[in-house]
Amino acid sequence: MSELHPLAPATRWGIVIIAALCGLLMFLTGPHSLIAMSQGSALVLHSLAITLCASVALAATRLRALRFWWMTGALLVLVGVMSGWMRWSVSGVDELDAGEMIATWYFHLAATLFMALPWLQRDRTSGAPVSRRLALWNNGVALLLALALAGVFWGVLLLWAKLFNAVDIRFFDILFFDTPLFVYVMATVSGAVCLLLCRSQTRITEALMRFLTLAASGLLPLASLIALLFLATLPFVGLSGLAARTSCNALLNTLALVLLALSGLACAPSPHKALRLLNSTGVVVTPLFSALAGWSLWLRVQQYGWTPWRVYAVLITATVLCWAVCATLQAISRMKGNEPAGDRGGRVVMLFSLALLVLSHTPVLDPWRISVESQMARYESGAQKADLMSLYMLQHAGRRGQAALNELRHNPAFMADKENRQALRDLLDTDSTVADDDLRDAITLAAGAQAPAESWWQWVSKEDTYSVRGCLYEKGSCVVAALDLNHDGQNEVLLCSSDTRSCSVTMRENGQWRQAGWSQEIPDSLTRGKFDKALRENQIKGKEKTWQDVEIGGVRIPINYQ
Prior knowledge:
alpha+beta; five-stranded mixed β-sheet
């Protein structure tokens, strides 16, 4: 392969210079630069710089090769279109509200580059295309090694800075970690150099690949056995358990991915017929796991509508299903004695994954658009009242989510509901007070317990809104009782939530209420049901502490005993 022949010195230096220029561009368009630029425009330029740097570091063999630059240009156009859509989605939105979308975009950018770069890579000597599937695995191993090397490099810089900090010389600490120009440029340059080292030292990469192949050959029969045993138990236990668990989709997809990854790495068939049959059967059943994952996800969508993460889960499930079908066809062909030629299945999966990634950053499959429309439809139909999770999603769904919140705010039918009104007020104005009447409706008084003083309700609605908002979001989860816990003749107020499994104690001191204590270490033996029942039935009493605080030099030192 091409990796057996080192790159020319001019090519290596050219790659390093391009990486440094990419880092400089990211600095000039970053938040610390004097150049005024919106976060959307900076995102586009940063994405293009990362794409160019990754392309030359992983795929360039000769910088004068016109084909490489044509392919890189096409990839830059593709990334530019995708990032341009993201720029439109976050334009006019506060940076904090758009943070989740931007973080997700950079993850998708990495996935896009990972799937697209094998199409840029060519054999270094002949210029012929390399195996896309093999290039994908090699790139994955190279990236892991490069990340390890980069971690060591920055660790050495950290040691350097801390050593001189010990003698009150902070120059290097400021230079390495507090100087944006150095951080941006050195991050891209060190990443490119580490990738070049991994590309040139192919013996290490090949040795690691052989180790992974050996490990996969040993683990594949075990994974196949687990998969078959799980399928064998389903007719007896049914599918109700899968439907009830929110993590079912992730678990099933993970099992399918483990089987597919192990089968892809374990290229050589097992010499034992029984193991070959077991491995092939395990691969053949992987589409069933993808189908079950899709079914469990659809149940959640029907219950609660679409969210961005459910849309992403659908895209992942579709990719896993495509990979599983291709692997199944190959396994069946091998079982018939026909060894599949080439890596056609791998190319299909890569192209399918790349297509989904691109479409998810267009109006066609944009997860944020789909989620906003779904939640707004549920609000309009009355299928859902305002809750923290759905409103939070709208707040962080870019310009479409902000428009949806504004629409809800001016919707008379929506705002006529007291719960909707309070939830929206709490989301949009974190400093807003909680209505006294709303609290009385949401918090239950323990049976036979003395009600808190009127002044407590006024205090908690203005000064402790963070604690009581959970009571509004989860109606009926909070119980309050007034009792003397410190034997001073005055009642303290105990407020407990069965939802968060926590309690807080407030006391009146010098005419003012303040929080005196809290507990978030409720034993597991007191389940939520038992906890809630005991609170409502007023099975509450003060318990004297066995251990005491200490006094040192006339000053009392509180001791928190476990």
